[in-house]
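Hey, quick one: can you model this chain's 3D structure?
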Amino acid sequence: MADPHAESEGTFTGPAETHTFNGILFDMDGTIVDSTDAIIKHWHKIGKELGVDPSVILETSHGRRSIDTLALYDQGKANWDYVSHIEGLIPKEYGADAVEIPGARGLLASLEHINARWAIVTSGTRPLVTGWLDVMRLPHPHNLVVAEDVSAGKPAPDCYRLGIDRVGLTAEGSRAAVLVEDSPAGILAGKAAGCQVIGLATTHSIEQIRQSGADWIVQDLQSVTLLSKVVGVHGQIQIEIRHALQR
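Sure thing. Here's the predicted structure for all 247 residues.
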């Protein structure tokens, strides 16, 4: 993948901004954990089984559901039983190859501590997500949207609309939630759902994130901090965003 910090357009020097939201939704890979090395090994293994150059698969697989990727090469393997099986093996076989995104552990712990409304909304299957959370010993959300839950994956907005519903924000409107995403497909899905999006420059170039429509672009979750739960307002939280990209 391209070095996301090799861009010359702008610097991560934005002043601290405080924003109030009713909930926060996170993508998983590239947002909470970086399993790039594990996923590369996984698709090399699958590519060999399919007789497909893994570099071709990897060009478009990030941020997309495996079932959609497999459908391009072998319709017979594009089923949930197979996808759940192979994805469930990734944390077990390549767990040592993943690292947490800087700032992720502290942010999730702070949200859990005040019982904030948050969820993980991912293109991965349930066995993959829970496997990584177990391996990394990260908090499990009360609300989770996985690949199997929707008929159309990112960049379709279905997953984020479902996530908004599961955290109880449907009546309050999509603008009440902020999303944290790293992939263009995920950012496009969030914007199509009507949400504001914090884009992380962890896996893609700044230009790709910018063109996808992220409202803020930061290097990682060290730039996103939970300040407090708004007193007297059910469910609202104050988030500080600092060191955002300055254009």
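One thing worth noting: The chain has a mean pLDDT of 92.
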